[in-house]
Design a protein that fits this description.
By secondary structure, this protein is an alpha/beta fold. It has two domains: 166 residues, P-loop containing nucleotide triphosphate hydrolases (Rossmann fold, 3-Layer(aba) Sandwich), CATH 3.40.50; 70 residues, no CATH class. The protein is 40% helix and 26% strand. The strands form two sheets. It has a six-stranded mixed β-sheet, sandwiched between helices. Helix 3 runs parallel beside helix 6. The chain is globular, with a radius of gyration of 18 Å.
Amino acid sequence: MLTVKSVHTYYGNIHALKGVSIHVRAGEMVALIGANGAGKSTLLNTICGLVKPGKGKVEFQGREITGLPPEEIVQKGIALVPEGRQIFPTLTVEANLEMGAFTHRRRRQQVREDMARMLERFPILGQRRQQLAGTLSGGEQQMLAISRALMSRPQLLVLDEPSMGLAPMIVKEIFAIIQELRMEGRTLLLIEQNARAALRIADRGYVLETGKVVLEGEGSQLLEHREVQRAYLGKGARQIWEA
């Protein structure tokens, strides 16, 4: 479904991605892990059209989308749940969901039906539908960001650091939601620092370091890999996820 081929991305003189190649098949969940500054968000931004690569190409559903504007990439079926959630704080929950459906705005009945499904999936959002999004808790905002992305009916859902800034119990709840989406057969690309949580539910994974893919394999295999355990699965992570 998604193929990134030998992509090089630059920020001025900074060579952020150095020949990165990954692929995501239809119906699978792929995790991309790495430390801060490894290039994870740069890769995501390159896929979603927020940054244009200097070399290489991005293909989706067999067609090249390299460098297309972000709105066109959304229309082609890729939706992003951005790092930091980036909801519209001065708009209501309902208005935020409507913004997610901008590619289908002429299909009013479809948008209403999709919104009803989102509010049924996340009952707390249904209770807060007329509340300003900026007044929601961090976990509720993340649910809203996921729902907003789903309103575009994406074929590929990309999640950028969904656990960032959330308390451990809320992180577990968010990953339970992601697991539900996976079990529904959705195609997911998860960018995440919490390697243990991501690899536990991923079909496959990639490890990114200094702009390069240094490891790839099945999620369960990477969990057992000595270098992954040394670098990303320290004592703190075990305490959270094995409690």
